[in-house]
Design goal:
mainly alpha; Rna Polymerase Sigma Factor, Chain: A; Arc Repressor Mutant, subunit A; globular; transcription regulation
C-alpha cells in the first residue's frame, strides 16, 4: 500500500498543472486535485499494481471536472472567471520570452475546455493519442479532431496577438 501511495503522491505536480489548465483558478484547481486524490485513495484497490497511476489519476480528475462543470451548468453559476489583466501578471514582463509565454498561456485559456484538455493531455502531459482518448472518454478520432481544431484556434489567437503587439500608436 505504501508503494501505491508514494506513486500517487509523485503525480501531484502533473495533476495540479492539468487542473490549473482546465479551471484557470489556482484555488479551484487545488480543490479539484484534492478531490481527485481523495477519490483515488478511497478506491486504491481499483489501481493495478505495477502500472503507473498517472493514466488512472488523470481519468479520475477528468471525470470529476466534467461532473463539476455539469453541476455549474445546471445551477447557472459562472463556470470560470476571466482573468483581469492585473491578476494575470503581477509585474510587467521585461523579456520577450516572458511576453510570448504569457500570450501562449492566455491563448490556451481562451480556447474551449474540450480542445484545451485534449491539447494539454497530448502536448504538455505527453500522453499518446490512445491514452488521452481513453482518459477523456472520447474516440481517438474525436480527440485528434479536437487537437487539430485547438491548434488552429491557438494559431489564430497568437497571430492576432502578434499583429496587435507590432502596431504602435504614436502621438504627436
Amino acid at each position: 500500500m505504501d508503494e501505491k501511495k508514494a506513486a500517487i503522491l509523485g503525480e501531484i505536480p502533473r495533476l495540479r498543472r492539468y487542473a490549473r489548465s482546465l479551471l484557470r483558478d489556482r484555488d479551484s484547481a487545488d480543490d479539484l486535485v484534492q478531490d481527485c486524490l481523495e477519490r483515488a485513495l478511497m478506491r486504491l484497490d481499483n489501481w493495478q499494481t505495477g502500472e503507473s497511476p498517472r493514466r488512472w489519476l488523470f481519468t479520475i480528475m477528468h471525470h470529476l471536472f466534467i461532473d463539476q462543470m455539469r453541476k455549474v451548468n445546471r445551477r447557472g453559476e459562472a463556470a470560470m472567471l476571466p482573468l483581469e489583466a492585473g491578476e494575470a501578471v503581477a509585474q510587467p514582463a521585461e523579456q520577450l520570452d516572458g511576453i510570448a509565454s504569457r500570450e501562449i498561456i492566455d491563448a490556451l485559456q481562451a480556447i474551449s475546455p474540450d480542445r484545451r484538455a485534449a491539447l494539454v493531455m497530448v502536448a504538455i502531459e505527453g500522453f499518446s493519442y490512445a491514452e488521452a482518448a481513453n482518459i477523456l472518454g472520447v474516440p481517438a478520432g474525436t480527440l485528434m479532431s479536437r487537437i487539430a481544431r485547438g491548434r488552429e484556434e491557438l494559431r489564430g489567437l497568437l497571430d492576432d496577438t502578434a499583429r496587435r503587439r507590432t502596431i504602435r500608436i504614436v502621438e504627436k
